[in-house]
Specification:
The protein is α/β, with parallel strands linked by helices. 19% of the residues lie in helices and 30% in strands. It folds into 2 domains: 223 residues, Spore Coat Polysaccharide Biosynthesis Protein SpsA, Chain A (Alpha-Beta Complex), CATH 3.90.550.10; 156 residues, Hexapeptide repeat proteins (UDP N-Acetylglucosamine Acyltransferase, domain 1, 3 Solenoid), CATH 2.160.10.10. The strands form 7 sheets. Strands 13, 14, 16, 17, 19, 20, 22, 24, 29 and 32 form a 10-stranded parallel beta sheet that branches. Strands 12-15-18-21-23-25-30-33-35 form a 9-stranded parallel beta sheet, covered by helices on one side. The chain starts with a strand and ends with a helix. The relative contact order is 0.08. Bound molecules: uridine-diphosphate-N-acetylglucosamine and calcium ion. The site of uridine-diphosphate-N-acetylglucosamine has 28 residues, from strand 1, helix 3 and strand 10.
Amino acid sequence: MSEIKAIILAAGKGTRMKSETPKVLHKIFEKPLLGYVLDNVKNIVNESFVIVGHHAEEVTEYVEKNYVSAKTILQSPQLGTGHAVSMVCPHLQNFEGQAIILCGDTPLITEKTIKEFIEFHNSKDSDITVMSTIFENPTNYGRIIRENDNSLKCIVEEKDATPEQKAIKEVNAGIYCLNWNKIKDAFSQLTSNNAQGEYYLTDIIAWGKKQNLNVNAYILDNSDEIYGINSRNNLATATKIMNERKLNDLMDNGVTIVDPTSTWISEDTEIETDTIIYPSTYIEGINKIGKNCKIGPCAHLRGGVEIADNCKIGNFVELKKAKINHNTNVGHLSYIGDSELGARVNIGAGTITANYNPLTKEKSKTILKDDVKIGSNTVLVAPVTVDEGANIGALSVITKNIKAWSLALTRSPIKIIEDWVSKNLEKK
Ligand code: UD1
Ligand code: CA
């Protein structure tokens, strides 16, 4: 297999989002759209180039912080998709392998589809392969124009299309696989002689035909995968599609989802068999949940959560960066963040880990060892460790480490004034 690089287009403006945030950094389950695309190629390519332009600094910062094998390349001004790809040319002068091109605003594409697309490209001995799909309503997409023998001819953009061409339902998905050294010369030869005055990447199809290259289209069955985000409405639709896909996958693999219409689970959450997810549960970020757990109703997992087997996370419980060992219960109305909980721990209702110091802006850890029992309405002021088997009385504020098998409580003594009510009633 030859080396494969990814080129991800992310310089465009995204005007219709009406946002201060660049489009590709809008999030689904707390992960930016661009992150989905980068994650879907990371096992396939050895390097990714992200073309940035609008809000380049913010997008670059995100990529550099999260993806070591990705480079950002500035495109300024943005003169079209063909111009965007041409920015990579100086970086790939002697590159002999393949380049796959994707858009940063298409988060629903899967690793499986990208792999199949590249396999198709190789099996056809293709030089240029474009991904297409059939849309009942093809408006706004580039149309795939074929010769009489059904081979590819060119791609025509909506704004350049004749009424006959507009009636074509096969559209360009905006994903390409190129044998780079055969195509790279195209980028200096594209013209902007079209309705939008832009350098169109799509023109490489007609260019390739002229050079007698082998040009093919791979028709994608599941057109959901190339759904692009242009508006807030699209963002909501994509979130829903991604969630449905995840819930079906979990159910196929032995997880009970009591109510798929009110349950939201991120792609990056792993859940093992016989765990039950109750209604109105929202799980975002990267998480791992073991076997035989009960989560919810109305639980909120915010990422970095690892739960071992046989645990119960009850209603109105919020978890963030929490590692929870087996047979532990966090039953009701609690916040557990930046914490490690051992096995067989019981957390009473309304327990809070106070993990944030607003003066230093630091977050600290709470560690509860095996068999610890925490009474209701306890505040654990981090950093704090409660050793094995210790008990905490209800309503305590724990600011010191607690030794194993001891009891700690900070409750003020109860005061009972007998007959107080009846005496006061008499006065009236
Ligand atoms: C493009 C295709 C169209 C296809 C559609 C699929 C072209 C000319 N048209 O149209 O055939 O059906 O995608 O979604 O390629 N971008 C840059 N720099 C630029 C311009 C765009 O990086 O100078 C990026 C955008 O940020 C975006 C992607 O390229 O991620 C596509 O650009 P967009 O303007 O959305 O193209 P479409 O009109 O949707
Ligand atoms: Ca688009």
